[in-house]
Write a structure and sequence with these properties.
With 207 residues, the protein is mostly beta strands. The chain is built from four helices and 15 strands. It has a single domain, classed as Fumarylacetoacetase-like, C-terminal domain (Fumarylacetoacetate hydrolase, domain 2, Alpha-Beta Complex). Helices cover 14% and strands 35% of the residues. Strands 1, 2, 3, 6, 7, 8, 9 and 12 form an eight-stranded mixed β-sheet that branches. It has a five-stranded mixed β-sheet with strand order 4-15-14-10-11, with no helix packed on it. The radius of gyration is 16 Å and the shape is globular.
Length: 207
């Protein structure tokens, strides 16, 4: 049986050093003029969730989607991390990063979720995670979580400064720079040691 969340799913922007470096010149522009001091979050609501193995529809107006491979923390009781799960945070390519537009991030089915929740005691230190992204069997990206700006513990602490995460909520660790693009007809496989495979196929939305 496929595993799906029970709470709210939060994505995190700008939590990989390479991503921050790539966007550094934009951070000093209006309206903010300074880099963000707190984690930049967005929500992936229930309409976006797709189980591993599911096909994900891509609207005809969207020629390509951005593959945001990551691993998410799943919250347990008393603010502890119960476990971790693979995610494929799809989005329509766009320039905004301070306030990700809902119409680009929250299309139906645009969050692939791994079928296995790996207990925190089994997963170990999140900074040691690595994952690989393959499109149609070809390696397109390798993500090393030792390159996080805020490691898992720091991210939780900083988010906890302004909001409460409840049992069942998910908090992604972030997506690295160099996210590959995929289109209808492509199969996306995301793997990480101990996590198995998160696989989704993009299909053209029925007219």
């Amino acid at each position: 049986m496929s595993w799906l969340p029970e709470g709210t799913v939060y994505g995190v922007l700008l939590n990989f050093r390479a991503e921050v470096e790539a966007l550094a010149s934009q951070m000093n522009q209006p309206p903010y003029k300074v880099p963000p001091q707190a984690p930049v979050l967005y929500v992936k609501p229930a309409n976006t969730w797709s189980a591993s193995g599911a096909s994900i529809s891509v609207p005809a107006r969207v020629p390509e989607v951005e593959v945001g491979a990551s691993i998410a923390m799943v919250m347990g009781e008393a603010g502890e991390v119960a476990g971790y799960v693979l995610v494929n945070d799809l989005s329509v390519p766009h320039a905004s990063f301070f306030r990700p537009p809902v119409k680009f991030k929250c299309l139906d089915g645009f969050l692939g979720i791994g079928e296995r929740l790996v207990p925190a005691s089994e997963a170990g230190d999140a900074s040691g995670f690595t994952l690989e992204v393959r499109i149609n069997g070809e390696l397109q990206q390798t993500v090393n979580f030792s390159h996080l700006l805020r490691d898992a513990a720091r991210l939780l602490a900083d988010v906890g400064e302004f909001m409460t995460l409840r049992p069942g909520d998910m908090l992604m660790l972030g997506c690295d720079a160099g996210r590959p693009l995929a289109k209808a007809g492509d199969r996306i496989d995301i793997t990480a040691p101990g996590f198995g495979v998160l696989s989704n196929t993009l299909v053209a939305e029925a007219s």
